[in-house]
Design brief:
512 residues; alpha/beta; Rossmann fold; Cytidine Deaminase, domain 2; 3 domains; six-stranded mixed beta sheet; 20 helices; 21 strands; elongated
Length: 512
């Protein structure tokens, strides 16, 4: 029995082969514009759309498929005799398969700011056909993804074209048009409303189901923007859990914040408990581990580089739950194989890769709050304002940069102490900044770490001089903080009393 397929695609990849297979399976091809031309040039017999619509494409192609012969052919119900009778009366022939992918709106906005060109790449007829075919999935196959061509042909040829099969494609079709419209809505709001329109759409593509959510009774999954995980995340060993993904996210952001530097971050429950930059990654890991080896037990290690055999052997001395790196060599993977519970992930590059999302959001009961993503400016530390009489040395400035960046990526209230490019103390997530400072110093003392000569950073201003007094007692040489307190003069006076250098970045980096 002859069937008809309507094919109209922007992405021509694989379309000739797909249509060849459809023809072999007794489908008649209806096509439009550029797709029709490609098919005919490939020797595939196709019917041009205006032969079906009995009306020419018009308005420079803006109108071609918005026609009752198209939508009636897709939408009329095959299980209702009244529909069949009316289709016959009107001369509407059934369309049994619709293959459409939409005008490349994202590719257009990525390459140009020309609004006229952008408007012309908003698809109208495509989404209408997709939605029509999806609505009538009881009788029509809707195909929107080039990666599905082989599966569709296999189903047609092996009597797997069931209602359940078509239902799966129906769901995918509505996801496709919804995400397309969401992208357009978000773009228009970004262009004309500073990104904060009356509606905000969050659209992600599922990467994986996690073992469970934060707890075993919760379900969980990972979704991605712009194929970040598809292109930059490979599971080598184990299965990423919801908590693993959250923890490694924080560790990766810190480890990757220093460009090409050989940096290692160790985190636990989303908080850094070790960080260092050294001449090589082995030394960086050893120094990072010294900060808090107790918390590092069962933690996450992010390595901004390649984990080799030597580093793997050292890491294997401690129970680690997750290791993520730019790459993990085959030799290193063999070393880790002895540890049953360790999970290994790599990004496939020599260094860690950040998505650099421009927006950030958090769930609150009943909705979510949405904001521009926070970033530490490239020269924020370099251009920080010296407010004390004492100036930091060049080496101390590097320590301050490390402390400042780590603090900006650590839960408030927090303080970070860095010495010789390694974190020696950290206090985070405290309700009081002085508590954070004292907690960090107590932990350092317990670990036998000497913080004298270190640089201290806070992600927000010190409201009282007591934190400066505690830092001075511990031998801190340099402090960097945003400033902006009504007691800034007291803080400056305290720094001068102790001969410390004090810098105000004049930028706050809360992380809640």
């Amino acid at each position: 029995m002859k069937k008809r397929a309507l094919v109209s695609v922007s992405d021509k990849a694989g379309i000739v082969e797909f249509c060849n297979s459809l023809v072999k399976n007794s489908y008649e091809i209806i096509s439009t514009g550029g797709t029709y031309k490609v098919l005919v040039e490939a020797g595939i017999k196709a019917i041009e759309i205006d032969e079906v619509t009995k009306f020419p494409e018009c308005f420079e192609g803006r109108v071609k498929t918005l026609n009752p012969f198209v939508h009636g052919g897709i939408l009329h119900r095959r299980d209702k005799q009244s529909h069949l009778n009316q289709a016959k009366e009107l001369g509407v022939e059934p369309i049994d398969l619709v293959c459409v992918n939409l005008y490349p709106f994202k590719q257009t906005i990525d390459k140009t700011d020309d609004f006229d060109e952008i408007i012309e790449n908003i698809d109208i007829g495509g989404p209408a056909m997709v939605r029509s075919a999806a609505k009538n999935f009881d009788a029509v196959i809707i195909v929107t993804d080039v990666n599905d061509y082989d599966e569709v042909i296999e189903a047609i040829e092996n009597e797997k074209n069931t209602k359940e099969f078509r239902r799966g494609y129906m769901i995918k079709a509505y996801e496709h048009t919804a995400s397309y419209d969401a992208m357009i809505g978000n773009y228009m709001n970004k262009r004309f409303n500073d990104g904060f329109g009356e509606k905000q759409f969050l659209v992600g593509n599922k990467v994986m189901i996690t073992r469970y959510g934060e707890n075993p009774h919760q379900k969980g999954a990972l979704y991605e923007f712009d194929k970040h995980f598809t292109n930059n995340f490979t599971t080598l060993k184990g299965e990423a859990s919801f908590n693993n993904l959250n923890d490694l996210n924080g560790a990766v952001k810190i480890a990757a914040a220093f460009g090409e530097d050989n940096s290692v971050c160790i985190s636990k429950h989303g908080n850094p408990c070790g960080f260092a930059i050294k001449d090589n990654l082995l030394e960086a890991y050893v120094e990072a581990l010294r900060c808090d080896p107790i918390s590092a037990f069962g933690g996450v290690v992010a390595v901004n580089g390649v984990v080799n055999k030597e580093l793997a052997e050292k890491m294997n001395e401690t129970f680690l739950e997750v290791v993520i790196a730019g790459r993990i060599t085959q030799e290193a993977q063999e070393i880790f194989a002895a540890k049953k519970r360790i999970k290994l992930f790599e990004m496939g590059w020599d260094k860690l890769i950040l998505a650099n999302d421009i927006n950030d959001f958090k769930h609150v009961e009943g909705g979510f709050v949405f904001q521009d993503a926070d970033k530490v400016g490239k020269d924020e530390v370099k251009n920080a304002k010296l407010v004390s009489k004492t100036q930091a040395s060049q080496g101390d400035m590097k320590d301050m940069e490390i402390a400042y960046k780590v603090a900006s990526l650590t839960k408030s209230n927090c303080v970070v102490y860095v010495k010789n490019s390694a974190m020696v103390a950290v206090g985070m997530g405290m309700t009081s900044r002085v508590d954070a400072a004292e907690c960090a110093l107590k932990k350092a003392k317990d670990m036998g770490l000497d913080v004298s000569g270190s640089s201290l950073a806070s992600e927000a201003f010190f409201p009282f001089r007591d934190s400066i007094d505690a830092a001075a007692a511990a031998g801190v040489k340099n402090i960097i903080e945003p400033g902006g307190s009504i007691r800034d003069e007291e803080i400056i006076q305290a720094a001068n009393e102790f001969g410390m250098s004090l810098y105000f970045s004049e930028v706050r980096h809360f992380l809640h």
